[in-house]
Each structure stands twice: as structure tokens, then as C-alpha cells.
Amino acid sequence: MDTIINGSKWLLKLACQAGVASMLFLAMAPSNAAVATAIGTGNFHSCAALSTGGAKCWGQNSYGQLGNGKTVTSLTPVEVQGLSSYQITAIAGGTYFTCALTSTGSVYCWGFNNYGQLASKTLVSSTTPVAVQIPTGAAKALTVGNNHACVLDTYGNIYCWGSNSGGQLNRNVSITHSSIPLYAAGMNDVVALQGNGFTTCYRDNKGGAKCFGNNKYAQFGIGTKDSTDGATYGAPNYALGLSTNVISTSASMYDGCAVKDDHAVFCWGFNNTFGALGFTGIGIYSTPVAVLGLRNDAISIITGISHTCIITQSGGAQCWGMNGTGQLGNGRAAPQEAASDVIGISEKIISLSLGSNHSCALLESGTVKCFGQSLSGQLGTGTTLYSPVPVTVPL
């Protein structure tokens, strides 16, 4: 449900420097053509930021998560209202809501708001974007979980809002939710963050990986798990063996993963029947385990609810885990444990974003390709038929 970029340095450029990605893509496309500069997926919807400004979304829209002022599902991309004058550097979807970060550091959210996901000081949902008031003024990175969101501000602070049912706001679960951004204490020198489900993982400036939120399934990778949701909060500890040399982290509903600078991939947490952690053996793994069978060229990783993908040095992608509707993009639709190549993409993949049962890729040219389930139109091609191979989204 969130997005990684092809290499952590590219992520920082995209998040911190206004217009970097859009200038690159515009140079490759006709001046009047809108191409994507960032992508994000929710459980059953998808979105893309556009080089010409603003964003488009497609898929399920029961609570206005497409941001077009309606609550009607769309099988093709529709324009998000009120953002056309902004260059969007990051966009991410939750279960039924979406948030976007602009090049000026402003944050906007829209959709379902039953837990304060829109940070609008109310629990009223909105079918159009609502401005989020970050206490310190501006954000430089954004991530979204099922029913919460977090930002990294320009001073290195993390603020989160929405549901706290699993401790995802880094507060005691007696605070059930927040409709305003709350400071997440105990985290310093944060470089990049990525959340999903009820957990957020981040990389600090020492190259270490830490996670906060829910640890009931050992999502922190610290050697222990909690007996109840959100029992551990405050200053996080490093995932074991990952205190340095980490270049990418990712969190999911039930697990976490990281890539080190030698391209080794590690995952931890709950390994389900689909092999979401990349190896056999159903159970809870409280310490990071090496994912074997890869080509030793991973540079970034993204985790979905039951599937996981990496981007390689050459700009390709490999995925593993649940594949019942083709969300691994390998041309098949059957459970798949071992990593397999995403097929049908001839140019470099810049970023990936994973929904519940679908995946989307942003290519170097600004093209967006999606694959997997499309019952709600989350592939954006005008059909509800799933596709086990990447299909181009008409932006």
C-alpha cells in the first residue's frame, strides 16, 4: 500500500527536491503529454502523480478515495480535484483513503475518515482533498498504512495520525485514534520511512532499520513479539543484525523487510502459507531471515499484505508470495513462494507500489503498468478482469 523508489538516493531526491522527477520525465516525453512522476496504491485503488501537475486515481471509490468528488468506482483514471496546480512528489493509499505530498511540503488527504485518517480535526469523510496541518510546517516524506498516515518533516521529526489500534501512532493504544498529526517521540535522524498495515519501518542516518507500531507478529524484527496489539511503543530498537548498511526498508500488515548495501535481502514477522517472507516454513520469525534464491542485485524492497517485490540494479523486478490473481506479474495466477521475474516490461522500473492483490510499476518513461486483481478497476484499464502480466494504464 505504499511506494518505493529505485534506490534510496532517488527516493530522497524525489521527496526533497521539487520537480526532479518531473523534469526527467518531461525530457523524455512530448511537452504536452502528462506522464507519471510517482505512484501509490491502496487496498483496491491506485493513483499516479502527473508531470503536468495534480494526480489521477482509479479503482474502488466507496468513500471518495479517488478524490474526484464522487463515490462511484472508476475503471479508468479520474482527476483528483483541487490539486492540478501542485507538483506532487509522493502519493499513497490506505484501505479507503489517499494522501499526497507536494513539492512545497504540503500534505493533502481524502476519502474515509472514521479514525481521523484525513487529519482534518473531525471524523467527517471527504471526497476531495483536505489540507493536513503539519505542526512544524512542511513535510519531505509520506507513508500510509491501512488507517493511518505518517510524515517526515524537514527537521527530521515523524508525525502520525489516524488509527492507533495497533500502536501505529507510537502511542499507548488507550489513545484509539487522532484526527490531528501527533509527534512520534524517540526517533532521531530519520532518512526514509515506509509503512503498511499497522507498522512503519524507517532507516536512520547510520543506515540502520527500525520499526514502530504493531509487533504482535514480530514485525519489529527485534527477537520478540508482543502478546497484544501495540504493547511496545516509544524509542524503537534496531532490527537484529540491521543496525548499519541498510539501503531500503519496508513494512507490511504482518512483516518487515530490508535490503543491505551488499544487496542481501532480509525479512521477518509472520510467514503465511503463500511464503510472503520469501522462504518456506509457516510461522512467526522474530529475527530477520535472509531471503535466498535472489540474484544478489536488489536495491529496494516493498511489501504488500501477502506478497513482496524488489527492484534490481538493472531496473527489473522480482516478486514472491501470494499470486492468486497474478499480482506477482510473472504470467501465472497461482500461489508462488520463490521469487520470479516480473515479465513484459522492457524499460527500467523506477518504483513499485503494492495493493492487497495488485501491483503497479512506474517506468523510467513515466508510463504506469499494473498487474493482478482488477475487480474494482484497480488496474485502470477499463476492465474488471485480472491480469497476470503488466498492462499499461492510460493516463
Automatic annotation (TrEMBL):
Endpoints of the signal sequence: 1-33
Taxonomy, superkingdom: Bacteria
Record-level GO cellular component terms: cytoplasm
GO MF terms held by the record: guanyl-nucleotide exchange factor activity
Sequence intervals crossing the membrane: none
InterPro entries xref list: Ran_GTPase-activating (IPR051553), RCC1/BLIP-II (IPR009091), Reg_chr_condens (IPR000408)
Keywords per UniProt: Signal
Protein name per the record: Uncharacterized protein
Upper classification of the organism: Bacteria, Pseudomonadati, Pseudomonadota, Betaproteobacteria, Burkholderiales
